[in-house]
Amino acid sequence: MLLKFTDWLIYELLGLDPEARLPQALNFFVYDFIKILFLLFVMIFVIGFLRTYLSQEKLKQWLTARGIFGNFMAALFGAITPFCSCSSIPLFISFLKAGVPLGVTFSFLIASPLINEYLVVLMLGTFGWKITLMYVMSGLLIGFFSGVILGKMRLEKFLVADMHADLESDQQTQMLYTFKSRLVFGWKEARDIVYKLWGWILVGVAIGAGIHNYVPQEMIQGALGKTGIFSVPIATLIGVPMYGSCAAIVPIAVVLFEKGIPLGTALSFMMAISALSFPEAIMLRRAMKLKLIMIFFLITTIAIILTGYLFNMLQSVLIH
Predict the structure, then answer these.
(1) Alpha carbon 73 to chain centroid distance?
(2) What distance in Å separates the CA atoms of residue 100 and residue 61, rounded to the nearest whole number?
């Protein structure tokens, strides 16, 4: 419905050419900005409402006490949520505000865009079940191990101050006994966080729209076809700053593979676009300091590169 609305707004009401790149970029921008802003508000509202029934300190203790099992559950939860890298940020922030350990929240943030229903369905129809299954398992492992490593590094000091769980506020929420007061709490929390983030979202989505519509596929294909053993890290580094939907990413990976690019190289390019993007980094800057964003990107990038080499090694097995 939202896509139909943006199509009507850009192409019919404004009368812009749907085949031209600038109107396509504008449509992409309007659609993603509205979608992410709405998702941000709804998710924070729902989690804020639910937080009034559960102590943040108890939630933190529950996840921490289970050690790395919390990372696995967060990665698994991320796998069943149909979010892109930018759309995962609202839940990531809500988890931080609720006192969930940082490493656990990173497991969700990494796994959520790597694996979702849309991507799995598209991959099944193009790559087949063996490659799709291997990809899903790899996405879970990347989210799990990256989150565990980031959690062990004790990086909470690099979070922006108001992204830490507020235990005093937590005690106040436990005093909200009426259903209406709980709804009001959730509404106010969603409103306050959206107010702090909307500018970062605007900038991030605008950059993503430009990259999505103005970086030619032929240029990427040409670069990857001439790099040999270094094609996996180069494909990953090319994919990191880019941004796109699953519907656009999977066909590009398929075309690269059909043009002779190794399977792991094509998939590492797809993974990098899915899990990491420059617009995502812009939005995360509101929640964490630049050093933490760089560490998060570095560890996830290394994990994707290693996964790409693994797929290249197993290519002959997976395609038969």
Answers:
(1) 17
(2) 9
* Residue appearing with tokens 């980094």: 281
Q: How far is CA 192 from CA 49, 197, 282, in A?
A: 14, 9, 19
- Cα torsion angle, 237, 228, 269, 137, sign: negative
Give the closest residue to 284 by CA, choosing from 272, 296, 273, 300.
296
Rounded CA separation 110/149 (Å) = 13
pTM of the model: 0.69
Cβ 40 vs Cβ 70: under 8 Å: no
pLDDT at 168: 46
Nearest to 268 by CA among 240, 244, 293, 287: 240
For residue 52, give the 3-state DSSP assignment: coil
User: Domain count of the chain?
Assistant: 1
Burial of 244 (0-12, 13-18, 19+ CB in 10 A): buried
Q: Provide block-wise average pLDDT over 10 residues at a time, the chain (320 residues).
A: 74 76 79 76 76 62 68 83 66 76 88 77 78 90 92 85 54 61 82 73 68 62 70 87 66 75 88 82 81 92 93 84
Residue 163, domain extent: 2-318
Tokens of 226: 């001439």
Find out whether 91 and 123 touch, Cβ atoms under 8 Å. Answer: no
